Amino acid sequence: MTVREQTSIDEPASAHAPALAVRHLPRSPRAAVLFLHGGRSDSRAPSRPWHLAAVRMKPFVRAVARAIPDDDILLAEVRYRVRGWNGGDADSLRDARRALDELQRLAPDVPVVLVGHSMGGRAALRAAGASQVRGVLALAPWCPEGEPVAQLRNKEVVVLHGDHDRVTDPRLSKAFVHRARAAGARAVFVGMAGGDHAMLRDAGNWHRTAVSTVLEMVPPASGATGTTGSTGDARDTGASGVSER
């Protein structure tokens, strides 16, 4: 499957613009994958699609699009109004929730997998309490101490984090996973040996591990067989690190 992009969704987001940027819209989607790129801890500057944080997510969108065996998975990205999280305003979380609301109207009751990097990983983990969210793949997420985990109960959560990350702390991600698991999430931490925050070192391994994780979280098509949506762990063979349960 290829990603069909719409020119209008690459315009900068405004307060009244849609938060959902649809990249592939099947006629009858059976599931959706929603991508959330990174940003900054504090910035009121408008978020632009050519910013590096947004560009970093494009290879993951393309990798998932290529790997999906059937043409019935909706692919979309969250359009942020501003670049930063911005303290209690949690702007990227608000945008993620708006995007999920828009997705629910576009494809009612379709199960959703969230894929977020850095600040987008934090937003995805926070937004996962929405009823349509089936699971979250967080890539080098920003997980400050004290982040809530109750919303992840009964959700699938996989966190990939490189041990050479100097922007977000893999130790805090691992601690977050342990707390989420204690709260009832089916949570896994996967250490990416040698991985950096930009996910450029051994990028192919990041992409393969992300794809296998998404395919496991997406429910299988009716009557389908194989690994998609299975309870097996493709991450055990995809990651160049350690998977902790």
Q: SSE layout and pairings?
A:
Elements: E1 20-24, E2 31-36, H1 52-55, H2 58-67, E3 73-78, H3 91-106, E4 112-117, H4 119-127, E5 133-139, E6 156-162, H5 170-182, E7 186-192, H6 203-217, H7 235-238, E8 243-244
Parallel strand pairs: 2-3, 2-4, 4-5, 5-6, 6-7
Antiparallel strand pairs: 1-3, 7-8
Radius of gyration: 16 Å
Q: How many β-strand stretches?
A: 8
SSE ordering: EEHHEHEHEEHEHHE
What amount of the residues lies in strands?
A: 15-25%
Structural class: alpha/beta
Query: What is the 3D shape?
Result: globular
The biggest beta sheet reads:
8 strands, mixed
Distance between the termini: 32 Å
Strand order of the largest sheet: 1-3-2-4-5-6-7-8
Summed up, the helix count is 7
Described by its quaternary structure, the protein is single chain
Proportion of helical residues:
25-40%
- Unreliable residue stretches: 2-12, 226-234
Mean pLDDT reading: 88
Please give a structural write-up.
By secondary structure, the chain is α/β, with parallel strands linked by helices. It is 29% helix and 19% strand. The chain has an 8-stranded mixed sheet with strand order 1-3-2-4-5-6-7-8, with helices on both faces. The two termini are 32 Å apart.
